[in-house]
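Fill in residues.
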């Protein structure tokens, strides 16, 4: 039993790695930084005694996606966690086009490519799960995070559709919808943490605890935290024009 975790060196991906290794699962961690991969892998195998392999790969391009796909075709893979991802923040017209399209490559294209690699073997064996880390951002159009919100809407839609396609094969596909989670994500996106009320933040460990509980129950969606469940459900029930407007007002304070 091996779990392949993209983004396994930081934040939510790292919390998955810690929780799964504590349960005795072998791991393959994927990220770009070789040094961080080596440090995290050594720490986890020292703490838990499990086998932790690493793959240094950039998931924003076909070469990195192919490298991880090759490992996913091995028979021992029972879980794929697609956690690697990033967001940008600010007016669309002010974004670097390459950095913006890179979001689509990592958050969307890699998720599709890796699912293509992992699923055939899982279906043939009648055993396996995929967790796609989406976001509460999936629930509505996100002005000033236009590309990020759209990538996460894709991930949620894709996950629900796949879940239905493979349900009869004994495979679970789950979309995970974290809200504000303490990690490097917001520093990278240029969003000030202090602009978000402290009660809205969750630790990545809490997000992953809830995700693994929901996965065990075969759920197709996991949204950790009551506030996040209310926010996501109300956004999903509102007309897109209204939820986009509310989103604009709520996120006004993050604007650089
Ligand atoms: N934090 C939040 O509030 C929040 C809320 C909702 C959803 N999410 C989602 O949760 C997921 C994980 O985010 P996080 O908060 O854990 O962020 P994080 O702390 O920044 O971790 C991101 C991880 O992804 C890896 N990564 C980034 N770009 C990559 C690339 N091109 N190729 C391969 N690996 C790459 C990073 O390692 P390297 O930099 O070494 O590659 C790192 O391991 C993302 O999909 C994010 O959209 C986060």
């Amino acid at each position: 039993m091996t779990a392949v975790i993209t983004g396994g060196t930081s934040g939510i991906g790292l919390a998955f790695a810690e929780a799964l290794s504590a349960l005795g699962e072998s791991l393959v961690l994927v990220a770009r930084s070789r040094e961080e991969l080596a440090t995290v892998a050594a720490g986890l195998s020292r703490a838990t005694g499990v086998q932790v392999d690493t793959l240094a790969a950039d998931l924003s391009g076909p070469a990195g996606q192919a490298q991880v796909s090759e490992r996913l075709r091995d028979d021992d893979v029972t879980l794929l966690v697609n956690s690697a991802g990033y967001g940008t923040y600010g007016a669309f017209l002010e974004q670097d086009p390459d950095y913006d399209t890179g979001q689509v490559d990592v958050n969307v294209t890699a998720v599709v490519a890796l699912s293509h690699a992992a699923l055939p073997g899982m279906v043939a064996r009648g055993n396996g799960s995929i967790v796609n880390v989406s976001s509460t951002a999936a629930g509505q159009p996100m002005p000033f995070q236009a590309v990020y919100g759209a990538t996460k809407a894709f991930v949620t839609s894709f996950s629900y559709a796949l879940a239905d396609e493979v349900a009869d094969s004994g495979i679970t596909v789950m979309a995970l919808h974290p809200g504000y989670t303490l990690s490097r994500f917001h520093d990278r996106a240029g969003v000030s943490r202090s602009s978000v009320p402290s009660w809205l933040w969750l630790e990545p460990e809490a997000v992953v605890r809830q995700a693994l509980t929901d996965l065990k129950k075969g759920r197709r969606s996991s949204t950790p935290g009551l506030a996040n469940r209310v926010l996501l459900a109300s956004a999903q029930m509102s007309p897109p024009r209204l939820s986009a407007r509310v989103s604009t007002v709520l996120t006004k304070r993050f604007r650089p």
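The chain has one domain: 2-254.
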